[in-house]
Specification:
Helix content is about 70%, strand content about 0%. It has one domain. The protein contains 9 helices and no strands. By secondary structure, the protein is mostly helical.
């Protein structure tokens, strides 16, 4: 090999890097080309929802408070809604009872007027008794007495709303004073019904039974001449004597029962008048407080 060739070979060898130098060069090149994804010395914080995150007691308290408030507000809202529904239902009961009261007042007013007429007619029984004692055929005065003692005028309470209040537990929806007013009226009506069943109706039954022993049949048929058409007609123009005989003991019994019946009617009318006034005051109270009309 010539000297010139040896010099060229030595120059090539000087330019070729050794093994260690090649590795360092590759490492330096990778370091310069690789992007830095994380700044040096950056602190890493764990997210609160991370499974490895440990909650503080304040976070637990806040969550409990939020859940409690949600449940409490829901409970309050439900109570308010239920209270509004109950108030509406109570008002419906009051209005329905108010309508029942107006119907009762009308019915009682009619009975009071009817019994006023009956009392006026039956008050003449003394004169009729004296007339018959003088002549047992002078029985024309008996016609009016029989007419106004042959039946009663019982009061029937309108209990549509009362039954609903009792069966559906509606009284608990009403204000205490409203409920007490309704119960008080119902109790007074019950007292009237008891009087009708124990004194008023039995007094009328006694008269009817005794009159059947007193009256002559043909004359009795004239009193109810149209019975096959209408079971409740009454003919005041009877020409025949009404009494079957001059049985003074039976006649005395009849007039004593008639007097007892008159007393029962007077008492019945007083009870009706008191109950009517009670119903009117309750109706006025409800109308004033609930503006029903």
């Amino acid at each position: 090999m010539s000297e010139i060739e040896n010099i060229k070979d030595n120059d090539k060898n000087d330019k070729l890097p050794t093994g260690n130098e090649s590795e360092r060069a590759a490492s330096d090149q990778a370091a310069t080309t690789q992007p830095q994804t994380q700044p040096p010395h950056m602190e890493v914080h764990k997210h609160p929802h991370d499974v490895t995150h440990k909650k503080k007691w304040g976070e637990y308290f806040l969550e409990f408070l939020l859940i409690f408030l949600a449940v409490f507000l829901g409970f309050v809202a439900e109570n308010v809604r239920e209270h509004q529904v109950e108030e509406k239902r109570a008002r419906e009961y009051i209005r329905s009872f108010y309508e029942d009261l107006k119907y009762d007042i009308g019915a009682m007013d009619w009975i009071i007027k009817t019994e006023t007429v009956k009392i006026s007619a039956l008050k003449k029984m003394r004169d009729c008794y004296d007339s018959i004692k003088q002549s047992w055929t002078s029985t024309s005065c008996l016609t009016a007495l029989i007419k106004y003692s042959r039946s009663n005028n019982n009061f029937h309470l309108t209990n549509r709303t009362l039954n609903q209040l009792g069966n559906a537990g509606g009284f608990r929806l009403l204000k205490p004073r409203d409920a007490d007013s309704i119960v008080g009226y119902q109790n007074d009506a019950t007292d009237l019904r008891d009087f009708e069943s124990t004194l008023y109706q039995p007094a009328q039954d006694n008269i009817r039974n005794t009159s059947m022993d007193l009256m002559e049949f043909s004359a009795n048929t004239e009193l109810y001449s149209d019975i096959t058409v209408d079971p409740t007609p009454f003919n005041s123009n009877v020409t025949k004597p009404l009494l079957l005989s001059d049985n003074k003991e039976l006649l005395n019994k009849y007039f004593n029962q008639l007097l007892q019946y008159l007393r029962a009617i007077v008492r019945h009318r007083l009870l009706l008048m008191a109950l009517k006034d009670h119903a009117g005051s309750i109706a006025e109270y409800f109308n004033h407080n609930y503006h029903l009309e």
